[in-house]
Each structure stands twice: as C-alpha cells, then as structure tokens.
Specification:
Structural class of chain A: alpha/beta
Largest sheet of chain A: 5 strands, mixed
Number of helices of chain A: 10
EC number (chains A, B, C, D): 4.2.1.51
Shape of chain A: elongated
Number of domains of chain A: 3
Strand order of the largest sheet of chain A: 2-1-3-10-4
Number of strands of chain A: 14
Keywords (chains A, B, C, D): Amino-acid biosynthesis, Aromatic amino acid biosynthesis, Lyase, Phenylalanine biosynthesis
Order of helices and strands of chain A: EHEHEHEEEHHEHEHEEEHEEHEH
GO molecular function (chains A, B, C, D): prephenate dehydratase activity
Radius of gyration of chain A: 23 Å
Oligomer: homotetramer
Enzyme class (chains A, B, C, D): lyase
Organism (chains A, B, C, D): Lipingzhangella rawalii
C-alpha cells in the first residue's frame, strides 16, 4: 500500500468515480481523497501518491481552471491516462426516507442549477442549500441527525456514504461529459495503442507575428488533427499567451515527433504534457483539421526517398 | 428601481465587486444576488433584471464553464461591458476577533488552496472548512453565534457583512486576474470607443477540412487581432466543434464587419456575442496575429479604388 | 477603318490566328502586323490601334516574357479578351512542290525542335535553316525564286502567303496550347458572362514577412480560385517580388471586389490587368484552391445579417 | 576531350557567355553549340555531352518555356550550377566598318525591340532585319560579302566571329538579368556551400483543396524561404497544375530535407531538380517568406529534446 492514488475529494465525487474506472485494481486504502486540485498535484509531486486524478474539462465541480494552471506551472507531471464520464445526478437519502418526505436538499450550486427543472416539478416545496461539493452534500446527509433530508450527487457518492437513490438522472439536460486525467511523475510513457492523444502547452514568442497560424501549420503539414485548442494568458505579464493543445497520436509516432520538434524550434517554450490512450475509444472523429493519414510507414518511405535524392538519385 | 442588475451572488462575491465597478450608479436595492450563473442569465432573459454580471475567465469561484455554456445556448444575450479584477483574498472576522483567536476558518475550497501557504505559516493550528463560495463563508461568519472565527473572502464580502479585515492579500501567488462581463438583452450596441472588443462563437461546418485555419484567416486578412480563442465541443454530438473568440475592435468598424461577414458565409453558424469597451484600457497589446492597423479610412480608400477600377480606370 | 487591331506579326503567326478568332469581323486592312510584342503595346498606347493581340503563355515564338513585362510597366492597358489555341505545325510549300522535292526547310528554331521527330522520319536528307518566326519562314518560301523549298509554320501562314500544305500536325507531341490576350486602352470593362477571369499584378511590401501566404489568403477567404500564379522580380532592385495572378471571376462580383480591396490594403501596390470572358469556356476546372461557390447573393445575405447585428439584433 | 559541354548555340549567344563563366576551364573543342534548348538536354541525356547550359529565366532569346518543359518531362537531369548575367547589347561589325556606314542591321527581334530607342537616335536611316538569334546575326555579318553592315548581339558574339564593337550597352533600359543553369546527369550533388539553392517541381493531387497553401506551409514551418514560384499546367490534362519552386538552401540541410519529405508525402508527385551554389552570391535577400534561421544545429537540438521527451523526460 506504499503508493496510493490521489483524487479530488471528498469520497464520492465524480473524480472518485473516474479513478475507479482508471484504476479498478486499487483498494479503498490506496485511494487518497484530497482537498482541492492543487492538493492532488502536490501529493503526486511529493511522492505521497504514485498517481493522481483530476477533472480537466467541463466539470460541474470546478477544477478545470485549477487543473490547467497546475499542469502549466510548478514541477511537471505527465498525463498518462484519461476517461470521460457522463455527469448524471441522483437524489440520495438515508434508508427510510421517501421522496415525499424531502424538505431540505443539499448540493453544490452548479448541480442545483442543472437540476432546477426537476426540483421545481418534483419537489416544489423543498428548500435547497449549498455544500462545497456534491460529495460533501452526500456526506452531510449521511451524518446521523443531519438536518438535511437528501443530497443531489453522483451515484457513487450515495454508495460511498451508504445512502439510497430516491431518483436517478435528474439533470435537466442530457448529461454533459466531463474529462478526467490520470497524472504521473515524469517517467516511461504509456505504450502507444494506435488510439492515443498527446497534450502540450506552447508558449508563443512575444515578437512573432502570425505565431498562432504557424503553430497550427506545424501540425497540419504533418497531418496531425487537433482535438482541443485553448488560448491562455501566461500570467507572467499581460499580452503573453500560451496555447494548450490536445492532438491525435502518440509522441513516438513520426508525425507527432516531427510536429513537436517544429514547435520546439519556433516557440519560446513548449511543455510536453503526455501521450496516453484516448478515453473515448469508440466514437469521436475530430474534425478540426482532418487530412490524410500519415503513418510511420509514410514517413519512412519519404525518408528513404530523401536519402536516394541526397545520394544523387532522381526518384 | 424597476430594472435591477443581477449578479452571481451571494452579496460579497468578486462578481459583486465587478458589478460595483461596472455600474457604480446602482443602489443596493437595484442589485439582485442570484444563486448561480444560470440564474443571472435567466433574470436578464425574463426581464426580471435589466442587466447581469457573471465571471467569464479564470474565476476562483467557478462560473466560467457555465457562463460560456449560457452564452452559446438559449435565448441570446449581448455582452455590453467588461471589467478585469485582480483576485485578492482577505481574512475577515467579526469585530473583536483577533488573529490569535482564529481556530476555525471557512472559505471556498479554491480560495483555501490559494491561501494554503499563508494559512500554514500564520495559522498552523487552525482548521479550515468549506463553504459554497467565499461570500457565503463571510456570511456564515457574520451570523451571531457562528461556530466559525474567520472567513477567507474578497474584501468586499467583509464590507457587505460588517466584518473586519484581519489580514489582506493573503493569496500565495500574485493575484490571478478574473474577467467579468455585463450582459444585456439584444438592443442597441455600446458606442465604439476606439478601444473595443468583439466576442462571437463560430460553429464549424462538419465536413470542412482546414476549417480552423480558414476561420483565423478571415480575421488576419482584415488585420484583426484576436485576444482569445477556445475550442468547445458543441454538445449536440461528439466531434462537432465551435470556437469562442474575442477580437479587437467594434462590429461597426469595416475590418470587423467584413470579417464577420466572411465567417457568416463560411461557417455552419455564428453567434454574435457583442461589441463593448475593453476593460483593460491601458496596457494590453495582444500578440496573437498582430499586423497593420486597418482603419475605416483604409477600407474606404480601397473601396474608392475598386469603384474606379470597375468603371474602367487603372489606379 | 480608323481603328485597326495590332498583332505580333508578321502575317501568318499563331497570334494572327488568335486575332482572327477574337475579332473575326475585321477586314485585312484593319489588321496591323507589328514587329515584336513591344510594338503591339506601343500601337495601342499611342492610339495607332484600337486593340492588340499578343501571346501570354507557352508561346513557341517567344513573347511571354516580353508580354508580362509590358503589362507590368509603362502606361497600363487592360486585357479585354483571351483565346487559347492549340499549336499545330504544318509543312507548307509553293504550289507544285511535292514532299519528295523538299531539300531545304526554313522555320523558327523552337518549331524545328518540336518537329524534329517528324523531320527525321520523313525528310531525313533535308537541311533545316532558321527564320525569325514561323510566319517569316512561310513568307520567305513564298518569295519567287526562294532558295527554300518549304516552311514549318502555323496553317494560317500557308493561307496568308498562298502556300499549300504538304503535311499537317507534324509536331512530335500533342500540341501545347498557347494563350493569347486582347489588349485595350483603359475604358469600360467587358460585361460579366458568368465565366470570367480577372488578371492582376500584386507588388509585395519589402518588409512584410509571410506576404505571399497573406496574398493567397485574401483570395481563399472569399472563395476565389486562382488559375495562374507566378513570381517575378520587379526589376527595380534585387529581392523585390511581384506576383502575376489570374483568378476566376469578374471584378464586378462581390468576391473579386472584396479580394482586390484586401490586396490593395495589404500590398505595396497592385495593378489591375482586366476582367474578361474566359477563352476556355467549356472544360477547365482549376484546382488550386477550390472551395465553395460564393455568389453575390451569398455576399448580400451576409451583408444583411451584418446590418441586423449592428442594429442590435442577434441573428 | 571526351566530355564536352553543350550550350544553346550558335556560338556567341548569351548562353555561350554563361558557359564561359560556369566552366572557364573548357577549351573551345569542348564546347558544343546546340540548335535549341531541347538539343542541349538531349546531348546530356545521351551522354554526348557531360554537362549542358540553358537559359532558365528572362532570356531575350527564348528558351525559358522550353527549358522548364524539358526539366519537367523526359529523363531527369539535375541542375548543378547557375549564373545570372546582365543582358547587354553591342553593335558589332567587320573590321573597317564605321558607325556612319551602317545601313543594314541584323538581330533577333527581341533585341531589336530592346534597342529601338538607341537605333532611332543613332541610326535613324538604317534598316533592321531579323535573324534567328543575336549570335546568328553576328555570324551572318561576319560572312565575307555579307549584305549586312552590323549586328546587335552579345559582346561575346563579336569576339567569337572576329567582329569589332561599334557601340556598347545600347539597350534602352538597364539590362534585365538572365539566369542560366548548368545541367548534369543524375549523380553526386554539388557540396553545400552555405549559400545554395534547391529547385523542384511539385505536382498537386487533383482532389486536394487548399493544396497550394499546404505546399507553401511545408516550407514555411521549416523556415525555408522561397525565391521563385510558378504555376504550370501539367499538360496531361486541363486543370492539373504543378508548381516550379526555387528555395533557399541545400537538400543535405535538415530544413530542406524535412520540407521535401513533407512535400513528397502530400503531393501526387515531386521531381527534385537539384541543389547547387547560388549564382547571386552577394546581394539578394529574397523576401517571400522570411522567418528565422533554422540551422542543422537547431534541428539537432530539437531532435535531442524529442528523444528526451520520448524517454519520459520533461524538458
């Protein structure tokens, strides 16, 4: 049990659920709930945890902004895995509570906002009060003598705190997916699977007009699709920008390797954030810059041709 | 008092402070604290409020993801103003409390994470507990007989709830700026000031390779700089993307007008989000795609030249 | 007969044939053979001729380089028409000469090179001597007592000088097409036909990195296809470049008009060379930058949308 | 004397002068005047000559179109050298002829056009007649009993045919430079000199929108400047295009090697035309796509960084 996995706690968050999917092998003793995204990073950086899990995109519980900030600053960690989960809310209560009994609901304000329609229709008389997270809400309800009748939370929070589901999937719109990433200290990368993603941050040079277009071209001339692109002020001073980028493929592939070298040459700095299996193995076909496939075989043939040319051949 | 201004509450949030900067003319009766970003949008859409204020970027209290989602979906609102505030945390307490007395601190987990260094050095024995927002934390502390000794919050929260500052600017790093926007129903745009920003969302056509490069070109050929660029899945199905964009200039300018027409022609859809005075009036010179200036005079001269050419002239 | 048409002479050149196609209405008195491309331009500039015809691309008799130089320098003329002719060579001789009699052939060296295979197979014993043009060769053969038995020339040269065709289409490879243009003084442009071409020369600014990419973008964001692109040193000093461009469409169309205005704003100088019906009305589909169609209706709708947006509307 | 050098003849052409600059070591027996550009290519392809010289750009005697056609078609040859000469015309005559005696001038029509001003001012009464080339004109004048008094030609033609210069540099405008290239059979490339040029032809894929922009990007992301760019119909059918390109640098450099591999992967076909020392060693700084320098050291450092990253490092 020397190497636990840290996650954005408390127990029962959507991040806890993500860790369960990413590392089903772990015992509950090996799962370390942390108070805040920063604490998860700190646990992995200090060696207190071997890996960590945090939300990266679209979380209902915050964490996105903090996660990106931590990835870009401080000692580098690598993303070594990801999973995308649908955000589905349940109403959970202590054993014996019936829906008709629910007068006081507790949850995170974002969850409240997303379940407003259901609450208005189903529990028009109930009062809803805020908690620091949906998991904290479930925890509060689970306490003996709690003044709250039910919590809106992830289904997993109900299980963690021994509560019963009074209603499931009560969000007003079809669930927004949230993407969680697995963090590891620098070390061997995950093996390429043929369905990978590579993340990086490119810091543009100050005095370089057209820098963004060049950055995109570095990918497109190697037929690398992007799946996410986001500008961020770098914070060190106003007017400086970096781009956080997700691209298809693994850094051991020629197309990604060449693209990263090009970015390294043309940007002020670049931080490699990892190559890892895509969590959305089945469906997504990103359409940002689709082109041809460019396999290692394609690159190898072009290399052979170049060598013939350099030796005085003509084709 | 028929047209209040809605803001992300409760009273004492950073958003409350932003509203004070944006609309200092309002009385406290004209300020409507809302429970969640969605509620602010709803208040403006329904006419319950004349305007609303929400955080758009880098907030410590969440709201960014929700704000963008609301801007892109539902009945359109226009951004008619913005302000960027430094996020500075204070430790606030009831009158008579001294720093040495503080055993129980309450705040939002993000704020706690950002003040961890100060807390460890200054209040190593204190326990910190979560609240739904920094303002809610101040509110809790202000209650008579509260079990909490102090809250970490925005300075304004201390004022709103009659608390005293025990310490100021206690964040571990120099403050991250948060950008807030003023929302209005569709209607006359703010007059151009010569230092404006235009926001929009462009929905790429599915089957259009190179669509992102074309989108950027629509701006660059008109010498329009971008100040923010962010990809977002559109949510209707996987693999569809839109880009949320901030650009320099006002839509009444020729350069912006022509660029928007080009995007309208080439994208599946485009949602105009507003033209408004920039809040960072003094310093920022965005460097994404800097080029020349392209004033209305430049466009007018080119138009005159075109008319001469079309009439059979040669220059 | 006050306004003759000048052409690159002497009578019987391929240019003479092109003039016949472009202006079949002219009498022979109205056709003015000029000695050199420069002389054709001079005739139109001075008013000695109302129009002129010169080869622009791929001529076997030279003229391309000179034509471009004249289009770019000196008083501007407009291209008002074009025709593309296959270059087909005939062996022409005086009445009574038979193929077996031919011992001395005269022609332009380019024509000789292109008929070398046929000459070697059919007239292995014949000697071939150079003339200044294929038409001059025919003229020489037509002189009574000429020392030459036959000329290689355009079929039209045989007709012009009363010679008989001994063999037709004797070029070694399938005929290269040559493109000829009709020149006019500045004045009303030809009406758009829906199948037009626009020519221009863009002079890049010295100190403008990425200028070529920007130039191409000015066209591509308006969905204008290019059909020809050629860099040329401007001659005023080394390292300065201009681009000679042919684009689909007519300058009265919105897509062309907006693109030209963009180039006018971003380049050091631009010379408009004309909008005119395409000579290759049937088949060619240029594939340089194909995109969508962008009709005047498309531009008009985008303009209407912009006006609604500027008035405070949202779509 | 087993390996002569072929050139576009007859003796005394500007091409002859270019050969003298490129290969001053050759004896007159080693110089093989050819009748047409095609004949020069044929001599090198067949082994009748070890090398050949032809004009490539801006020749007053034609050859440009033919040269490009031969470079693109038939058995490949490599460009292994180049020189750029100013085109300066002289009036040359037999010994004993004085300027006042000149009544009949012979020259190529292009040369006549370019000396028209001087002829009109200096020899207003003289008649000018055409020859197949300026060198042929000098040859004609040199014949005993020639009916012509003087020829307009390159200075070298006077020397070759034993004529005397009556006037020098008589062209109307400052001389246009003509660029000549040295052709060799496939074999070892010239060593890189640090000031080289690489030529190639890229054949775009039919069905590939935006192909030209991608082609240019392949160079620009590797910081390779272009010095010439020209579209050409490929001839096999209408609507197919290739681009003839000159780029800075030598194919043994990383930046050129990587760019060529990218083009090889993305185009239907690419023909390498050679890497060779630039003839304009002193002044020209092409400004098409200037960027940074990208030396082999820059590429090597990026490669080392990539290897560290792939091994699990972070910078």
């Amino acid at each position: 049990m020397s190497s636990p996995a840290a996650f954005l706690g408390p127990e029962g968050t959507f991040t806890d659920a993500a860790l369960y999917v990413l590392r089903p092998d772990l015992t509950s003793e090996q799962r370390l709930a942390c108070d805040g995204v920063e604490a998860v990073f700190e646990a992995v950086r200090s060696g207190a945890a071997a890996v960590g899990v945090v939300p990266l995109e679209n979380s209902v519980e915050g964490g996105v902004t903090a996660t990106t900030a931590e990835l870009l600053n401080g000692d580098p960690l690598l993303i070594t895995g990801e999973v995308t989960l649908d955000v589905r809310f349940s109403l959970v209560a202590r054993e014996g509570t019936h829906l008709a009994d629910v007068k006081h609901v507790v949850t995170h304000p974002h969850a409240q906002a997303q379940c407003r329609g259901w609450l208005g229709r189903t529990l028009p008389q109930a009062q809803t009060l805020p908690a620091a997270s949906t998991a904290a809400a479930a925890q509060i309800v689970a306490e003996p003598g709690s003044g709250y009748d039910a919590a809106i939370s992830a289904p997993i929070a109900g299980e963690r705190y021994g509560l019963r589901e009074l209603a499931t999937d009560i969000g007003d719109r079809s669930a927004a997916a949230t993407r969680f990433v697995l963090l590891s200290p620098p070390g061997p990368l995950p093996e390429p699977t043929g369905h990978d993603r590579t993340s990086l941050a490119a810091f543009l040079a100050d005095d370089h007009p057209g820098a963004l277009a060049e950055l995109l071209n570095q990918f497109s001339v190697r037929d690398v699709n992007l799946t996410r692109l986001e500008s961020r002020p770098t914070g060190d001073r106003l007017g400086n920008y970096c781009f956080v980028i997700d691209a298809e493929g693994h850094v051991v592939e020629s197309r990604l390797g060449e693209a990263l070298m090009g970015i390294r040459r043309s940007c002020r700095d670049v931080r490699f954030l990892g190559s890892y299996p895509r969590g959305d193995a089945s469906v997504e076909i990103p359409t940002l810059l689709p082109r041809r496939t460019a396999t290692d075989t394609d690159f190898h043939r072009a290399q052979e041709w170049l060598e013939r040319i350099r030796a005085g051949g003509v084709s």
